[in-house]
Design brief:
By secondary structure, the protein is α/β, with parallel strands linked by helices. The chain has two domains: about 1-115, Response regulator (Rossmann fold, 3-Layer(aba) Sandwich), CATH 3.40.50; about 140-240, OB fold (Dihydrolipoamide Acetyltransferase, E2P) (Beta Barrel), CATH 2.40.50. It is built from seven helices and 15 strands. A five-stranded parallel β-sheet has the order 2-1-3-4-5. α1 links the parallel β1 (about 1-5) and β2. The protein starts with a strand and ends with a helix.
């Protein structure tokens, strides 16, 4: 069993990491910290095998924490910034994950931590894909970060989701919310029998589709293209 902790000040990021950890039976989450100061004291007094930490946090950054530690556990950086990768690897971190982090990418980091440790397991990997995981949507709602707010969205209200490079726009009823997330990342949080990716830039709610005509989907007054590589997947969802 790998004993791990999370150091993260964003509620949404904590939620995702806690869920991912819960899906890997060989990981045991000991504690979650919203700042590195509290985590420092805990690490010095407890047997921690693996740390998942953000970088930019109040008072003490994740990198400053690593520089402070005398006995350093294995560390995986989880951050929204790519700029610290070189410095992080100089501090001998196991892996560097850029948000939003997909579950397969998280598994890869955990397997890397396992392979660089001694005495945990005999098997070569903790876990491998494909892996069936439960739907992470609780009470038919999801939480997303919009600016400095954490907003709750009813899954039933979502009409479609559009990619905006490093961000996505979620059209839910009268609301159009923009958040730092990827289409793959948000799709993992939605029910596979209710939502489908139909284009490299679009996910749609199947129950909101009014009409499919040629290579387009019509939802109310919005016309959304169907990508060639996603066409068969769409039709399989509607049993055609």
């Amino acid at each position: 069993m790998i004993r791990c902790i999370i150091i993260e000040d964003e509620p949404y990021a904590i939620e995702i990491l806690e869920y991912y950890i819960s899906q890997i039976r060989q990981l045991h989450l000991m504690k979650t910290f919203s700042n590195a100061i509290d985590a420092l004291s805990y690490i010095e007094n407890e047997a921690v095998d693996l740390i998942f930490t953000d970088i930019e946090m109040p008072l003490l950054s994740g990198l400053d924490l690593l520089k402070t530690l005398k006995l350093k556990p294995k560390v995986v950086i989880v951050t929204a910034y790519r700029d610290y990768a070189a410095e992080s690897f100089e501090l001998e971190v196991i892996d560097y994950l850029v948000k939003p982090v997909s579950f397969p990418r998280f598994i890869k980091a955990v397997n890397k931590a396992h392979s660089m440790s001694e005495g945990f397991f005999q098997q070569p990997e903790l876990i491998s894909m494909p892996l069936k995981i439960e739907n992470p949507v609780a009470d038919n709602n999801i939480w997303i970060k919009v600016d400095k707010k954490i907003v709750r969205i009813s899954v039933e209200d979502i009409v479609y989701i559009e990619s905006l490079k490093d961000y996505i726009r979620i059209c839910a009823g009268k609301n159009n919310l923009v958040t730092h997330q990827s289409l793959n990342g948000i799709l993992e949080r939605l029910s596979a029998d209710k939502f489908v990716r139909i284009h490299k830039s679009f996910i749609v709610a199947l129950h909101k589709i009014d009409l499919i005509e040629g290579n387009i989907v019509i939802i109310k007054d919005r016309t959304i293209p169907i990508g060639r590589q996603y066409r068969q997947e769409l039709f399989s969802h509607i049993n055609l």
